[in-house]
Amino acid sequence: MNPTILRNADATVRGYIHYLGDHRTEIRNANGQTLGWYSPSSNITYYINGYMVGFGNLLASLV
After folding, report:
1. pLDDT tens digit string along 37-62?
2. DSSP letters along 8-41, please?
3. Nearest of 2, 35, 36, 37 to residue 23 by alpha carbon
4. What's the predicted TM-score (pTM) here?
5. Confidence band, pLDDT 50/70/90 cuts, at residue 13
6. b/e burial code for range 25-35 (CB count within 10 A of at least 16 → b)
7. Strand partners, 37
8. Considering its fold, how many domains does the chain have in total?
9. Cα(17)–Cα(55) distance, rounded to whole angstroms?
10. Residue 13 and residue 45: Cα distance in Å, rounded?
11. Nearest C-alpha neighbor of 23 from the set 2, 42, 10, 7
C-alpha cells in the first residue's frame, strides 16, 4: 500500500504514514527516518525507542 503523505500548509512534506499490515503502522519524517509506530491490536502508540506515547493512534503528534 502506498504511504499517506503529510504536508504543511505551504505543501512541503512533513512526513509519511506507512501501513505495514494489520499489526503495525509507522510514521516517518520527511527524510524517511522512523519516528514511531502504532499497534492496532493493542491500541497503543510507541516512540521509536519503544517507550509508550499513549493509547490510540497518536502518530501525527510525533511529527
Report:
1. 999 999 999 999 999 999 999 999 99
2. -TTS-EEEEEEE-SSS-EEEEETT--EEEEEETT
3. 37
4. 0.85
5. very high
6. bbbbeeeeeeb
7. 26, 46
8. 1
9. 18
10. 22
11. 42
Q: How far apart are CA 4 and CA 59, in angstroms?
A: 12
State the Cα angle at 36 between 39 and 8, rounded to 5°: 115
Neighbour order of strands in the sheet with 52-55: 4-7, 13-19, 25-29, 34-39, 44-47, 52-55
The residue type found at 39 is: S
- For residue 30, the enclosing domain spans 4-62
Residue located via cell numbers 491490536: 41
- Nearest CA to 48 among 33, 30, 32? 33
